């Protein structure tokens, strides 16, 4: 006998930050919501990242517009909850080691300013040291972004889900999705380890595993894992005041290279530890330790802040960024299978972009005009390119 579990309006697969944000927004809009998660809340990529809410690392285009939209929600509609997820408006400093790098960085900042982003020129090492006194004196200049911020990502996911549950949403953890149920050419629910769950729509928020969920419906969705390592130092006196990263970081984010890439990203924490990243490589779901990646991250951090060269590394952790080939997430209904929606593929920006993504999804579910056009994020765009 087949066991059936409720019939929500919206069934969300994945209880990471994106799934949690969609659940809250959908429940707030009056939909009945069920979230299924094969592990526990925020057990995947959300628990393996730094919680960045950045505008500084976005090139001009749809992702930057989504980042700005999300910032307005974090700082506006959700501001009353800021303390629950340790919102910190710490600001970001992007630095260039050469005059050529500085010129390119300033050109990017000029484009960003045209969209209303606050980006303050930091012309030389004297000005840089006024912001970060321990920065390598070889740096040529940089740009300071006062609106870059950070949250504690696991707390954010938990609290967003709590807000959803306060509105009646259900959360089922330890539930594995085994199939997408289709009737008359429409997705109507899932088969799972907890039984059959039918729903008005199914929203795939499975992060790096979103492609596997789509495959259950016979669809190709090229959301791929991109592994990254972060290093955590011993507690030290205040050394790094902001999120500081090398200008090359923006280039690495936009790169499709499968090989190991490392660009320095360093930031302090309230506890005194220093976080150092960031590596990127496409190795599937291989979670094994990489001495090469960790070593290069440590050296890059010390190049940016030489004072860190003798600081002890306490631990490392790694995770998988959900990466799409064109570096844009998939957001919205899948035209190939009505009833199936996607919200995934945000790569390293999922924490920041989650609430804006959720707002767009729910506006579309309500049949309302979306605050941003969804054309650039259409899930079926990759299949269309192959067909062309």
How are the SSEs ordered, and which strands pair?
Elements: E1 10-13, H1 17-28, E2 33-37, E3 52-53, H2 62-75, E4 92-96, H3 99-113, E5 120-122, H4 125-131, E6 141-145, E7 149-150, H5 153-166, E8 170-173, E9 177-183, E10 186-192, E11 195-198, E12 201-204, H6 210-216, E13 224-233, E14 243-246, H7 248-254, E15 261-268, E16 274-280, H8 291-304, E17 313-323, E18 330-333, E19 340-344, H9 350-365, H10 381-387
Parallel strand pairs: 1-2, 1-12, 2-8, 4-14, 12-19
Antiparallel strand pairs: 3-7, 4-6, 5-6, 9-10, 10-11, 13-16, 13-17, 14-15, 15-16, 18-19
Describe this structure in words.
The longest helix is centred in the C-terminal third of the chain and has 16 residues, at 350-365. The strands form 4 sheets. This protein has an 8-stranded mixed β-sheet with strand order 5-6-4-14-15-16-13-17. A 6-stranded mixed β-sheet has the order 8-2-1-12-19-18, sandwiched between helices. A 3-stranded antiparallel β-sheet has the order 9-10-11, covered by helices on one side. Helix content is 29%, strand content 26%. The protein has 388 residues and is an alpha/beta fold. A hairpin with a 2-residue loop joins β10 and β11 (195-198). It contains 10 helices and 19 strands. It folds into 3 domains: 10-50 and 153-222 and 327-387, FAD/NAD(P)-binding domain; 92-144, no CATH class; 224-323, D-Amino Acid Oxidase, Chain A, domain 2, CATH 3.30.9.
